[in-house]
TrEMBL record, chain A:
It comes from the Bacteria. It comes from candidate division WOR-3 bacterium. This is NADH:quinone oxidoreductase/Mrp antiporter transmembrane domain-containing protein. Keywords: Membrane, Transmembrane, Transmembrane helix. Residues 64-347 form the NADH:quinone oxidoreductase/Mrp antiporter transmembrane domain. GO terms for cellular component: endomembrane system; membrane.
TrEMBL record, chain B:
The keyword Endoplasmic reticulum does not apply. This is NADH dehydrogenase. Keywords: Cell membrane, Membrane, Oxidoreductase, Transmembrane, Transmembrane helix. The chain crosses the membrane at residues 6-23, 30-47, 74-94, 106-124, 130-147, 159-182, 202-225, 268-291, 303-327, 370-389, 409-431, 451-474, 494-517, 597-617, 623-641. Residues 123-404 form the NADH:quinone oxidoreductase/Mrp antiporter transmembrane domain. It holds the Pfam family Proton_antipo_N.
Length: 403, 642
């Protein structure tokens, strides 16, 4: 067992694409934090340290070529998440942070066993050396446990809604746009790019993916707060990406990557908008909100575009990403395709309800102070969603063949 | 590429709408420019398309899938009418919408809808088509938020029902791309030859996409948002979407599917299904229309009912039936838009569309009355107006299906004809309730609407006459037959519109002369006595139109069905919402809560395990020693027992 060159990084176009997405989301979350996150100097120091640590760990994980290194960065991300989720330090927030930590830690321990089994069985930690080798089902499933916890898929997503309920909006944005995608990145790097795994493995991951898309989508139909809706929506959307990566093929991988971009941009933008609305009106209860289109038409328009992107309606990037996922799913198994479409219908329903409850209808139209910075960030996200929707083929041409 | 007329068709209305939205003072001007520019390009493209050679524009080619725009005879024809209807309706709404709330959004959305509808018709393949189609779904949601009352619910209902069909359509498109034997997918909207429908994947794709087309057109069972919209949306929205554009687009796609991409004639089961949907839609919706108490809702049910004829005609799979369906689509758009606009003029003055409160407006609003009358006769299928001709073609198609050995054809034929009778009946009710009968006191000061409001319905009424009288020369030869790739239609039976119209005109003239000459038929006003006292005109003695046909509700089975229908028991939306609620509840309580409880349970187990261990650690040395001793005994026992 040699550890001498375990600090091994490497990159292709695909990795560059992912890093571009993650750094963009990280930058936006930082900008939002500067304008919106308040606290004492000590709290803020800790906050920014862990925020940057999380972004750094994410970027490094994309480039890492050694399983051990990936594991270390993985845990670094978990620890930063724990501190960031419980930023507000009330009982709720502390509990939420602990749930995130415990579940991710336990799953990562299982994953470590899987990684060690890979090293013992195939003789290497290195992704470069593992390429093309055959991996038995059992260690692959152990690794999948960690991925399922980090990427919040069924049945280990349960920490996520709790974390979203109490974390600052910027952290939620970073969670959706970066941290939860790390599981998918590992899936892509290990099970799509590198090793050969028995077909049953992909069957299991696809079923889990469709299950979380459907079940979280169904739960989101009944949620009562902004945060809960967005939390279950994230679980559901990550299910789409995991499904795309599980069915693989050109359509699957390309649309999975596009979906990561579409979802990261749109969902973090939605969290910025949600944070702005919550801060200004002092509540996150959907029943009590309303009439925000009159309060801030710019915010309403930009948020509308972001919801469209997540619903998968043209002319946003979400449309092409979702179309690609459904194409890939139907090509592999008609049932996956139908499940994905039903989940997409759920998405449309709960997001239209979400949007209508906040922005439309009556409600108090008393003048409130809205941070122009936050609105500006939401608009940037909306512009990116539309621009990427028109030029969706540019990223595809850039990363295609990188697997 | 941006200056290509295809792109301009999509971009110009959208840009004009956005400019009008931003610069509020010039909103009407921008909207006018946008629609007229679209009309100009539509006319140019229509003339171009007459050559018969399709014109293509490729936007993007990735792998073996190309996305692009194309103009052929069918799309040229549909494009032209989309622009004509939108222009007329916007012309009407300049006055109608003045001073109402959300006019800003109305013009933006209508112009965007125009641009996207142009895009749908110009799309060369299903993916491009779906891109614009999905955009229309969203604009439908946005435009339905305009109006009075609970527009929010209407918009959500439309979003769910139309969205459901759109997702079905997406699945169909995806199946046609990846699960058929054609490399690259069978998604070209006008391939050289249509495929027969034998392959299961092809049939699945066809059925799913046809569901999207039917829902768009407003056929059962996904139609129920239309009557709901009639309660909240302003008249121009109703005229623009359910009456005109949705019919044009839905039937356009259905024609593309049944004639261009696939050969519907090859599959008798699918033909029967389509015809059954058509016949069912005709009958059920017209019955619902009969008992309505509000004008817009009544018209909305007719907007649904008439789709039945188009679907029935296309479902026959016989050239004459398909041509009849397409022709009926055009005719229906003409007279239904006319009806909505003329009815809207009444509503504009009376401030209500409840039939109870209307009546006797023929003298005050003669032009609106004439437009409404002609359109009403056309929808009822009175010769020689256009509605008669296209229905007659549909009947011929159904009869021809009978000669192919289909035993169900009498059912369809009877349903269609009976529906036609009921249509006439319900329009007699509407004519009485709006224009004839006695005038309620509060409507004394109603006048004719200004030019911009009576001209659009009047010109549409004129079109009803022209399309009917010159049906062969103008409509069929000029528009329908080239659009369908059929070279000639075999029309059996004898109906020559021009001589017949001349005869009818002569008969009407003779009747008029007799009426004017005769003194005997002049109505005599008598005095009314009740209990020996003479009563003058009063509200109590007025007969409003709502009383018509209310006895239908007392008929044994039909009556009860109608009462259920009014309460929404057949409304698929209510069922869907209920199902989704149950699903959400089950997932939340059954999965989400259970998982959370499981995690908490494991946490508790670990906690108690730790608690137990801490109980043992008391700090008492003899206790620790006894543990060590016990452990050693067990260890040695195990060692020796092996």
């Amino acid at each position: 067992m040699s550890f001498s060159n375990w600090l091994n990084f490497g990159s292709g176009n695909l990795e560059l694409f992912l890093v571009a997405v993650f750094s963009f989301i990280g930058l936006m979350a930082l900008l939002y934090s500067i304008s919106r996150v308040k606290g004492s100097a000590r709290q803020l120091t800790e906050y920014y340290i862990f925020l940057l640590l999380l972004i750094g760990a994410g970027v490094a994980l994309v480039f890492a070529r050694e399983l051990l290194l990936i594991f270390v960065l993985w845990e670094l991300a978990t620890i930063s998440l724990w501190r960031l989720v419980s930023y507000f330090r009330d009982q709720e927030a502390v509990d939420a942070g602990l749930w995130a930590l415990y579940i991710n830690f336990a799953a990562a321990a299982v994953m470590l066993v899987g990684l060690v089994m890979i090293q013992l069985g195939l003789g290497s930690w290195s992704l470069n050396e593992l390429r093309g080798q055959e991996l038995p089902l059992f260690p692959a499933l152990l690794v999948l446990t960690g991925i399922v916890a980090k990427s919040a898929a069924l049945p280990l997503y349960i920490w996520l809604p709790r974390a979203y309920r109490s974390a600052p909006a910027s952290v939620c944005a970073l969670l959706s746009g970066l941290a939860e995608n790390l599981g998918l990145v590992l899936f892509l790097k290990l099970f799509v790019q590198t090793v050969k795994v028995p077909e049953q493995f992909y069957l299991i991951s696809a079923v889990l993916a469709v299950g979380s898309a459907l079940i979280a989508g169904g739960v989101a139909l009944t949620t009562r707060t902004i945060r809960d809706t967005l939390a279950y929506s994230t679980v559901s959307q990550l299910g789409f990406i995991l499904l795309a990566l599980s069915v693989r093929g050109y359509y699957g991988i390309a649309s999975g990557l596009l979906y990561i971009l579409a979802h990261a941009v749109a969902k973090s933008g939605l969290f910025f908008a949600a944070g702005t609305v919550e801060d200004a009106s002092g509540t996150g209860e959907l029943e009590q909100l309303g009439g925000w289109a009159r309060v801030s038409p710019a915010l309403a328009g930009a948020t509308g575009i972001l919801t469209l992107s997540i619903m998968g309606l043209p002319p946003t990037l979400g449309f092409f990403a979702k179309l690609g996922v459904v194409l890939a799913a139907v090509r592999s198994n008609l049932l996956y395709g139908i499940g994905a479409l039903v989940a997409a219908l759920f998405t449309m329903l709960y997001l239209s309800r979400f949007y209508a409850r906040i922005f439309l209808g009556g409600g108090s139209s008393r003048p409130v102070k809205i941070s122009p910075m936050a609105v500006g960030l939401v608009i940037v996200m909306a512009v990116v969603s539309i621009a990427a929707g028109i030029f969706w083929f540019v990223p595809v041409k850039f990363f295609e063949g990188g697997w | 590429m941006l200056a290509h007329p295809f792109i301009l068709m999509v971009l110009v209305p959208a840009v004009a709408g956005l400019l009008g939205y931003l610069i509020g003072r010039l909103r009407n001007e921008f909207s006018f420019i946008g629609t007229v520019a679209s009309l100009y390009y539509a006319i140019r493209l229509f003339l171009l398309s007459r050559s018969g050679e399709p014109i293509e524009l490729t936007i993007l080619a990735i792998g073996n899938i190309t996305a692009g725009l194309r103009l052929d005879q069918l799309s040229g024809f549909i494009l032209l009418f989309i622009s004509i209807f939108t222009t007329l309706i916007l012309f009407y709404s300049f006055r109608y919408m003045r001073g109402r709330e959300s006019t800003r959004g109305f013009y933006l959305y209508s112009l965007l809808i125009l641009g996207f509808a142009n895009g749908v018709v110009l799309a060369a393949d299903l993916v491009t088509l779906f891109f614009f189609w999905g955009g229309l779904l969203l604009l439908l949601y946005a435009i339905l938020l305009i109006g009075r009352g609970e527009t929010f619910r209407t918009a959500r209902k439309a979003l769910l029902l139309v969205g459901l069909s759109d997702f079905a359509m997406l699945l169909g498109i995806v199946i046609l791309i990846v699960r058929t034997f054609v490399p690259g997918g069978w998604i070209d909207l006008a391939p050289r030859v249509p495929l027969p429908l034998y392959d299961p994947a092809m049939i699945a794709g066809f059925v799913l996409i046809a569901a999207g087309a039917l829902a768009k057109a407003g056929a059962m069972p996904l139609h129920t948002w239309i009557p709901t919209a009639a309660e909240t949306a302003p008249v121009p929205v109703l005229a623009l979407i359910p009456a005109a554009l949705d019919k044009l687009l839905g039937i356009y796609l259905l024609i593309r599917l049944t004639v261009y991409m696939f050969d519907i004639a090859s599959n008798m089961v699918l033909r029967n299904v389509l015809m059954a949907i058509g016949a069912g839609t005709i009958l059920f919706a017209v019955m619902m229309a009969l008992v309505q108490k509000r004008m817009m809702k009544l018209l909305a049910f007719h907007a649904v009912s008439q789709v039945g004829y188009m679907v029935l005609g296309i479902g026959t799979g016989i050239p004459v039936g398909i041509a009849g369906g397409l022709f009926h689509m055009l005719n229906n758009a003409v007279y239904k838009t006319g009806l909505f606009l003329a009815g809207g003029s009444v509503e504009h003055w009376a401030k209500t569309d409840e039939l109870e409160k209307l009546g006797g407006l023929a003298r005050q609003m003669p032009l609106s009355f004439v437009s409404f009358l002609v359109c009403a006769l056309a929808i009822a299928g009175v010769p020689p107006l256009n509605g008669f001709f296209s229905k007659w073609m549909v009947y011929q198609g159904v009869l021809a299906v009978g000669t192919e050995g289909n035993r169900l054809f009498p059912v369809f034929l009877v349903a269609a004809m009976f529906g036609s009778v009921l249509t006439l009946a319900s329009f007699l009710k509407l004519l009485h309730a709006l224009f004839l009968g006695q005038r309620p006191a509060q409507l004394e000061r109603v006048r004719e609407v200004p030019l911009t409001m009576w001209l659009p319905p009047f010109s549409l009424a004129l079109a009803c006459v022209v399309f009917g009288v010159f049906a062969y020369q103008l409509s069929l030869r000029g528009l329908i037959i080239p659009g369908l790739k059929f070279h000639e239609l075999s029309l059996s039976g004898v109906w020559s519109p021009i001589p017949a119209s001349l005869l009818l005109l002569a008969a009407l003239g003779v009747g008029a002369v007799l009426y004017l000459l005769s003194v005997a038929v002049k109505p005599q006003a008598g005095r009314t006595f009740v209990g020996g006292e003479q009563i003058g005109y009063s509200e109590e003695s007025r007969v409003p139109g709502t009383a018509f046909y209310s006895s239908v509700k007392h008929m044994p089975i039909i009556g009860e069905l109608l009462i259920f229908g009014e309460r929404g028991a057949f409304d698929l939306y209510n069922w869907l919402v209920g199902i989704f609620r149950v699903i959400g509840y089950v997932f939340r309580e059954g999965v989400d809560r259970a998982l959370k409880a499981l995690v908490e349970f494991i946490g508790r187990l670990i906690y108690y395990f730790g608690l137990g261990l801490s109980r043992i650690h008391t700090g008492n040395l003899p206790l620790y020693l006894s543990w060590v001793f016990l452990g050693a005994v067990i260890f040695y026992l195990l060692l020796f027992l092996r």
